[in-house]
Specification:
two-stranded antiparallel sheet; single chain; three-stranded antiparallel sheet; 41% helix; 9% strand; 11 helices
């Protein structure tokens, strides 16, 4: 699925920048950029085409459930996985700062089921050393699944979009994804139809006057015209 976003934020996905323009100005100057992310139906098709290649399935699962970059996943060692605290330590982040990514139930179950014969969590199936690439298997699977205009990095967009749709705010996303500028997260927190529906539903009071009345300051019910 493709989501229309602020063109300024779209270009910022490749390079984090800051300028003197106010946030309001950034939000006003919009265009139909793109953020490609997987629908749940597309995800199911992708995993179906990856059957028999569990090592790639695990990497895709990791990307969708953590938002980690491909290189961060390849570099991940068991030393970086803190099961008691439920976090993953990313020491070599793109912005040069360490960060911690929470482990959800899906990731925990997957990691606990993996052998630790290599220092790397997702080692090369041939060498047991650091994995270099999954491009061939991933590209073949996505093409066979009928996914067009989709890259591995879009799994990161998928994670961010789903977290935002689930209620994560821009500050939480910035911490999880390692963005030094919180405006990077706003491309995902732009209101979706579901988010807008939830926002309106939150106005519903479980107990109170009918839709045709409202309580005034003295506690009396006033009938609306």
């Amino acid at each position: 699925m493709v989501r229309c976003i602020d063109a300024r934020f779209d270009s910022a996905a490749c390079k984090e920048t800051s300028d003197s323009a106010s946030l309001k100005e950034l939000l006003v100057r919009t265009d139909c950029g793109r953020t490609r992310y997987l629908t749940f139906e597309e995800e199911a098709k992708l995993f179906e085409q990856l059957e028999g290649h569990e090592w790639v399935q695990r990497i895709v699962t990791m990307a969708i459930n953590t938002g980690m970059r491909q290189g961060e996943i390849f570099n991940l060692t068991w030393f970086d996985v803190d099961f008691p605290r439920g976090v993953i330590h990313i020491s070599v982040s793109k912005n040069g700062k360490d960060r911690f990514v929470p482990i959800n139930q899906t990731v925990r179950k997957m990691l606990e089921g993996l052998s630790q014969t290599s220092e790397y969590v997702f080692p090369s199936p041939k060498t047991e050393g650091r994995l270099i690439d999954v491009k061939f298997r991933f590209d073949k699977a996505k093409n066979d699944a009928g996914l067009r205009d989709f890259r591995f990095h879009d799994l990161r967009h998928t994670a961010a979009s789903r977290m935002a749709d689930g209620g994560a705010d821009a500050f939480a996303l910035a911490e999880i994804f390692g963005w030094s500028d919180v405006r990077m997260a706003l491309r995902y927190t732009h209101s979706t139809d579901e988010a807008k529906r939830r926002a309106v539903e939150n106005l519903v009071r479980p107990v109170g006057p009918s839709d045709e009345s409202v309580t005034n300051e003295k506690g009396r019910v006033a009938v609306l015209p």
